[in-house]
Amino acid sequence: MEGNNKDLVFYYSAPGKAIISGEHSVVYYKNALVMALDLRTYCKLTLSKKQNGSSSDHTFIIENNQDNKTLIQILRLLLEYLVSNKEEIDFSTLQKQFPLVEEKDLILSYLFLSIFMQIYGRDKSIEDFINAFDEKISKNYIIKINLHSTLPISKGLGSSASYFTALSASLTKMFMHLLEVQELNEGYLKFVNQIAFNFEKIYHGTPSGIDNYIATYGNLLVFNKNHTSSLQIDKLPYKIFLIDSQVEKSTKKAVGRVREIYDDESLGTIGKQTIDMIGNVTDNIIKVFNQSHFDQNQFENLIRINQSLLRLLDLSHSSIEDIMSICMKYEIAAKITGAGQGGNCIAFVPETYNEAREREFIQELDSHGYQIIFAKLSQQGVKEETAV
Ligand SMILES: Nc1ncnc2c1ncn2[C@@H]1O[C@H](COP(=O)(O)OP(=O)(O)O)[C@@H](O)[C@H]1O
Ligand SMILES: C[C@@](O)(CCOP(=O)(O)O)CC(=O)O
What is the pLDDT of residue 65? Predict the structure, then answer.
């Protein structure tokens, strides 16, 4: 927390991710191997004291680089609605209550108030909540939110989780400060991870939780819906190329398609077996990482098998197939990363790969119109940034 001119700044960032193996099967309680990327979403909250006599209309301002927009004043109405409803509210019910509010504004307000209410304490009365909200926040402060990201959005690299995690991290610290809460029962990171997970559900329906987990904790992790562990590896023996298929994808749709195949009795157990095999491939990849000698050949075979299995689940696309055939031509192991049907592919270019051939590979992808991001593993999950 730093500030100029008496403003207080709460500035946090969270990374995106690339799934090395185990997308989709992770939804079915299999292990997944996931790495945090050095591409992040940054959320800077600036808390300024209101001048005497200023109206309370500008409690909440979202600053984008060019575009300044005041969030509509639904916060109080939303707060009244939330505190008067004791059951868990699903987002579609909430949307019906506030039909005139744009989805993204409603999500942001809901996130803001969810964190406020949890930190203030669920056992308080409606009046307590409203008074605390007015006294500690809306009467006294203007909160500016500045968000920016180095992560491509909606491309299978976990932008939504990185966004929710960075935002939750900053808002949590801000409310802890405003409500004079020193510590959270479950601990700060666990709290942030849980909030980000709840908001991922709004976008994705039934997310496994992998994206928010890696955004919170960073590093290279074996993630399972029931447990997680980190893998200690200083450096991958590969350069990571993230290749954008330029095709829009929807995680909800892709996860739904896999569910259809999984549940389709006319297909027998093909769906289930494919998910089991992806789980198996992932466990074998994890073994490769745990061995004292990293067996590149075995790793690359497993990545190719993984891609074939994802294809079986209808997660490919003609552009993805095109990328795969270029990778095959250059003998580079690659697969979809994230939900598939579009978005990004991950290609593993060995550190020892011939440089001239690597340039040709890049040129060929480029000539087909595919953009590449060269990404690195990030050890760090959510972290405080220095305000300038
Ligand atoms: N920096 C950001 N600012 C605002 N919204 C964001 C940002 N990053 C992600 N989002 C939200 O997340 C959605 C993308 O979610 P999703 O399709 O799951 O992406 P990804 O594949 O990157 O995880 C966007 O449509 C947007 O609503
Ligand atoms: C397909 C899935 O395994 C990963 C989705 O990743 P993304 O939303 O494409 O970044 C879904 C999940 O784990 O929730």
Answer: 35
CATH classification (class only), 235-375:
alpha beta
Provide the pLDDT confidence category of residue 135 given band limits of 50, 70 and 90. confident
Q: How far is the C-alpha of 375 from the C-alpha of 338, rounded, in Å? A: 15
Q: How far does CA 332 lie from the centroid of its chain?
A: 27
Q: Where are the domains of the chain?
A: 8-228+379-384, 235-375
Check: CATH 3.40.50.360 for 8-228+379-384?
Answer: no
Nearest ligand 2 atom, CA 200: 14
> How many Å lie between the centroid of ligand 1 and the Cα of residue 294?
35
Bridge partners, 179 (sequence order)? none
Pocket test of ligand 1: the residue of 12, 105, 159 to mutate, having most ligand atoms within 8 Å of its CB, is 159
The token pair at 223 is 């993630």
The two tokens of residue 107 are 């999500």
Burial class (CB in 10 A: 0-12, 13-18, 19+), 71: buried
Cα of 40 vs centre of ligand 1, distance in Å, is 12
Ligand 1 atom 7: the closest Cα is on which residue?
A: 163
- b/e code 189-223 from CB counts within 10 Å (16+ = b): bebbbebbbbbbebbbeebbbbbbbbbbbbbbbbb
Q: Is the pLDDT of residue 293 over 80?
A: yes
Ligand 2 touching residue 45 (CB < 6 A): no
Determine the pLDDT at residue 1: 61
ipTM (interface pTM): 0.96
Q: Is the CB of 341 under 6 A from ligand 2?
A: no
pLDDT in tens, 250-286: 999 999 999 999 999 999 999 999 999 999 999 999 9
pLDDT in tens, 23-41: 999 999 999 999 999 999 9
pLDDT averaged over every residue in the chain: 89
- Which whole-number Å values give the CA distances from 303 to 7, 147, 238, 286, 348, in the listed order? 50, 35, 13, 12, 9
Distance 31 CA to ligand 2 centre (A): 13
